[in-house]
Design a protein that fits this description.
Strand order of the largest sheet: 1-2
Largest sheet: 2 strands, antiparallel
Number of strands: 4
Radius of gyration: 33 Å
Helix content: 55-70%
Length: 862
């Protein structure tokens, strides 16, 4: 009997710990979403990195708290069969993410997407199991608060760019340095109008449903601001997604909440829906007409086609989660380079969420994805039917029905929008996949799974072996947990102080404001989470809980390192632009240590060594040298490019840059009097240039370098083939039915220039230097008529091209010397005489000795 109070105290302590964990979870998750939606930070290279870090570190804390709560609950924390049935789609998608990651060819490159999947599918598991009525109500309130902040700032941006058009910070009411980044489009705290548009699409049904539930006038104001912001984003996909959300919302509302009005006004409502759809489509068409080259549409069409080609390579299992960006460069259509007008850009996603899921995870993963969606929608609509069954005219549905309506339509609207977009692939929008689907299932059930387990109170019992062990180890474990949390807290504060910089260094008022906001948010987040863990460690009587808290500090520190890596990458780029190689390389090296998957930093570091190309062998730790081994810039650059290739084998212009590196090494070896070594590196350069031409046949310098190598080797025919490969653009040829049609050339082929060639419309890369050098190659081969034509083509594109002007005269002189020059008198007064070169037997000149240089710009054959 004497032990009963001890047992009771133990049970009370366990109850206090599990209640604290539960309370922390249902507060921390909505606050985390508030910060993800409203955070923005420009000291990193990627302004959205702060959102990624919040997902990673906040998600780790959330997961750790949930594990601790389940441990504190003991047997009640185990999921029952009915629980598993409810959570099965989320758990299956969670598990498939792990399988798909193990299948991915480049694990580092897929790690970010894998971590996001873990967070996205942990959120609905927690919501369905933990969130009671108060928790769901609080989550909705905090989402409304996030909307007021985000949409309110969007209105400020619209006012700023409309009435204060002078660019730059300090010239309008928007105080921040990113002011007018997408003028005249607004982007609020999302850093991109498309992501902001996605948020507006999914939040609109929730706002409308909350107004229908509460009839608060302030919500009407917020809804009006939402619509204004949506138009101001200028995002065509969001307009279509919004239209779909409106149709879903109206259909569900009248079908479930106002069936009588639906029956009485069915034709009018259908007409209104058709009018709304036509209005949206008309707005999109109007927006497309503002872009004569149909850039957005053509970009999507070619990206979708390439994605479908990729899907066919591994249709069952897919290539692996988050593997699109590493594989796509080998499938990218040449049209993309014409559309973008750039060659060093990276396409990370397929512009269609459904296609990308199918590529990444195959038919199996795509099937699970569809199961999750269909399950959530079916459960939601079934519950709406039950909640609104028997409603009479004028009778209001229960409040939970309005909540369910808003979240269900928000989920569907987001999915509809992502048919034309991949906002879900980015943290700011992707986090809502799990939140919305989890809330639909939770609200449909009417109670959390944890509430069902409360019906089984735990009785006093004899201490188990774990409880007995915990009584001896709890205080040492607590000290370990507190020490770990304290160490990380101090580390984070010190690091953030360095990353932020001193207040006196801030130049603009917006920077000062951002400095204070950043510190305030950071201290709140870090301090609150440290307090949560510290109190949980104190309340728990299970020694495993403090150890889990201590263990959580390790992945948190790794995630924090990823954030710091992004800041150092930004600093490195700053110094690179100043050509301060020492500081740039020092920061790039730090990026590689903190984030081995940061492919871009290795690529940029390789470019720094490539540009500098100092062949003196020295040892410098700041340049990545190790074990006191001296290296030159060729070795350092090659090492950096190989690090890129290990994680993304076809990254941007990596193969071309490696080719340039080998070409420089060949020139160096030639200067050192080692022709055999020069030839070896020339071969390596040629292979890389040819490989890159398969990925990007539109990039002129790549073709020029291929041709130059062949010219240096007196391989004239191969040089001619290279120049013609650039000029005639065989890889860019479109269907004749389109290229020969004026309508086709003005629409889907508007991004490509066409002109008449031998009486037929053809696409050409009219590069005057390529034409002139092609003329040089023909001249060296003795084909004077073809040389003349090439020089004339060069002058037609660039009348001031000196190489073509001078060498054309050389051609005429050579033809006259051989008696092949025919001057045709003018047929009418004022016309110029026409010059024609008669055909003759081509006699190629003897190959020059050694390895001469190809003729440079402006060179003249004499």
């Amino acid at each position: 009997m004497a032990q009963a109070p001890v047992k009771t105290a133990r049970l009370e302590a366990a109850h206090a710990a599990t209640q604290w964990a539960h309370k922390s979870i249902i507060w921390w998750l909505p606050i985390l979403y508030l910060f993800i939606a409203d955070s923005f930070y420009l000291r990193t290279y990627d302004s959205a990195q702060v959102k990624i870090t919040l997902v990673q570190m906040g998600g780790i804390c959330l997961f750790s708290l949930w594990i601790c709560r389940l441990l504190e609950e003991g047997k009640k924390g185990l999921l029952s069969k009915s629980d598993l049935a409810t959570l099965a789609p989320f758990m299956a998608y969670f598990a498939w993410g792990i399988i798909s990651y193990m299948h991915a060819p480049y694990k580092y490159s897929s790690l970010d997407g894998f971590l996001r999947r873990i967070f996205y599918m942990t959120v609905p598991l927690i919501i369905v199991r933990e969130f009671d009525e108060k928790g769901t109500a609080r989550l909705t309130k905090i989402l409304l608060l996030a909307s007021w902040i985000t949409i309110g700032y969007g209105m400020l941006q619209w006012f700023d760019v409309t009435f204060f058009p002078i660019p730059g910070p300090g010239n309008g009411p928007d105080p921040f340095i990113w002011r007018g980044a997408f003028t005249p489009r607004v982007f609020s705290t999302f850093g991109n109008p498309n992501f902001f548009g996605n948020f507006l699409v999914l939040i609109f049904p929730i706002l409308v449903a909350q107004f229908l539930k509460t009839r608060r006038f302030s919500l009407l104001v917020l809804i009006g601001m939402t619509l204004w912001n949506l138009v101001s984003t200028g995002t065509k996909g969001a307009w279509l997604g919004f239209t779909a959300a409106c149709l879903f919302l109206a259909g569900a509302y009248f079908f479930f909440f106002d069936r009588e009005r639906l029956t009485a006004n069915a034709k009018k409502l259908v007409a209104a829906g058709v009018l709304a759809a036509l209005t949206a489509v008309g707005g999109v068409i109007h927006k497309l007409r503002q872009d004569p080259q149909l850039t957005s549409m053509n970009f999507r069409l070619h990206t979708w086609e390439a994605t479908w080609e990729m899907i066919s390579t591994q249709p069952i299992m897919g290539t692996g989660i988050w593997s699109f960006w590493t594989i796509y460069p080998a499938f990218r259509h040449p049209a993309i380079f014409h559309i973008e007008g750039k060659h060093n850009t990276e396409t990370d996603h397929s512009e269609d969420e459904w296609l990308e899921v199918l590529f990444d995870e195959g038919i199996l993963g795509f099937g699970i994805f569809l199961w999750l969606i269909a399950s959530a929608c079916a459960i939601g609509y079934a519950a709406l039917g039950q909640l609104t069954a028997g409603l009479k005219s004028g009778q209001r549905a229960p409040p939970r029905a309005y909540d369910l309506l808003g979240y269900l339509v928000a989920f569907q609207g987001m999915l509809a929008h992502n048919t034309f977009d991949v906002s879900m692939r980015f943290v700011s929008s992707g986090v809502f996949l799990g939140l919305l689907s989890g809330m639909v299932v939770n609200l449909a059930r009417g109670s959390s799974l944890a509430e069902l387990h409360k019906a089984e109170p735990e009785l006093a019992h004899e201490p188990t072996a774990l409880e007995t062990l915990s009584s001896f180890l709890i205080w040492p474990a607590r000290l370990v947990g507190w020490a770990g949390a304290g160490w990380l807290l101090v580390t984070l504060l010190k690091d953030f102080d360095k990353l932020q910089g001193p207040l006196y260094a801030m130049q603009q008022s917006g920077e000062v404001l951002q400095w204070w906001i950043s510190w305030g948010c950071f201290i709140f987040i870090v301090g609150a989470q440290a307090f949560i863990f510290a109190r949980l460690t104190f309340l728990s009587r299970n020694f495993l809980v403090p150890l889990i808290v201590a263990a959580t500090m390790w992945p948190l520190s790794l995630s924090w390192g990823l954030f710091k890596a992004d800041v150092h990458h930004n600093i490195a780029i700053f110094f690179s632009k100043q050509k301060n190689w020492e500081q740039a390389l020092k920061n790039y090296l730090e990026v590689g240590k903190l984030n081995p998957a940061y492919v871009m930093s290795f690529y940029f570091k390789g470019n720094v060594f490539n540009d500098r190309f100092d062949m003196r062998k020295v040892f410098n730790e700041n340049w990545g040298d190790k074990n006191n081994v001296a290296r030159d810039d060729f070795e350092r650059a090659l090492d950096a490019y190989e690090a890129v290739r290990a994680n993304a084998p076809n990254y941007v212009q990596m193969h071309h840059q490696v080719g340039v590196l080998y070409l420089k090494r060949a020139e160096y070896e030639r200067q050192q009097g080692r022709p055999a070594e020069a030839e070896k590196y020339m071969d390596l350069a040629l292979k890389r240039f040819e490989l890159y031409s398969m990925h990007d046949p539109v990039f002129p310098p790549n073709w020029h370098r291929i041709a130059e190598i062949h010219m240096m080797r007196n391989e004239i025919d191969k040089a001619i083939a290279a120049y013609k490969g650039l000029i005639e653009a065989p890889y860019c040829v479109a269907d004749d039915r389109l290229s020969q049609s004026e309508r086709g050339r003005r629409s889907v082929l508007a991004y490509m220039k066409h002109r008449q060639v031998d009486g037929k419309w053809a696409h050409r890369h009219d590069d005057p230097e390529a034409y002139a050098r092609l003329g040089n190659a023909y001249f060296m081969k003795g084909e004077l008529p073809l040389a003349e034509r090439a020089y004339r083509d060069a002058l037609a594109v660039d009348p001031g091209n000196q190489m073509a002007q001078k060498n054309l005269q050389v051609v005429y002189a050579k033809a006259q010397q051989e008696g092949r020059l025919k001057v045709i008198p003018p047929q009418a007064p004022g016309q110029q005489p026409r010059i024609e070169i008669l055909p003759g037997k081509a006699v190629p000149p003897p190959p020059p000795p050694g390895l001469p240089r190809p003729p440079g710009p402006g060179a003249v054959f004499k």
